[in-house]
Amino acid sequence: MHTVLNIVQLVRLSAIILIVLKVNNVVANFTVENCKSLGFNKPGPLRSTCDKFLNYDLSEIRENCLKCCSKDDDDSRRYPKAVLEVCTCKFGAYPQIQAFVKSDRPKKYKNLQIKYLRGSNPKIKLYDNENKLQDNLDIHKWNTDSIDEFFLTHLVMD
């Protein structure tokens, strides 16, 4: 009888530990370095963007995305100014960047400046209210929609 009681207590304790570990895993957020190593910027994509990974059966990527994401209504990390640096001589290598720059999409963002720098790989520079550089993002692998969504998410909209 005493052994059965110990087994029941052990099972209960194991269940409690499992619950605590799962809760800890759900609320744990990654650091900026963790997110960058996984390919996400922090503050990263919107939560709704992370949910799109389920459409492609990418639940593991979604879980990592959720630990790096921002709430859809989070204004805490919006920047008043962004500069998209590009080189027209490299548009052939980056057709998605070219498509964004040549489209009407940049006109939606009054605080976005497109800067043409000879030899520059495509990047986004984000500035604070004092015009101090806050972040510098390499975007050579981004597609047109990702760039647009990034600006929607991270630029202050008037």
From TrEMBL:
Gene3D superfamilies in the record: Sep15/SelM thioredoxin-like domain, active-site redox motif
Any single Gene Ontology cellular-component annotation: endoplasmic reticulum lumen
Subcellular location: Endoplasmic reticulum lumen
Species of the source: Microctonus hyperodae
Coarse class of the protein's main subcellular location: endoplasmic reticulum
Keyword Nucleus among UniProt keywords: no
GO biological process, one term: 'de novo' post-translational protein folding
InterPro entries linked: Sep15/SelM_sf, Sep15_SelM, Sep15_SelM_dom, Thioredoxin-like_sf
Domain of life of the native organism: Eukaryota
Pfam family, one: Sep15_SelM
Residue ranges annotated for the Selenoprotein F/M domain, each copy included: 81-155
Family assignment from sequence similarity: Belongs to the selenoprotein M/F family.
Region forming the signal peptide: 1-28
Keyword presence, Calcium: no
Keywords tagged on the record: Endoplasmic reticulum, Selenocysteine, Signal
Name of the protein in its database record: Selenoprotein F
One of the record's GO molecular function terms: oxidoreductase activity
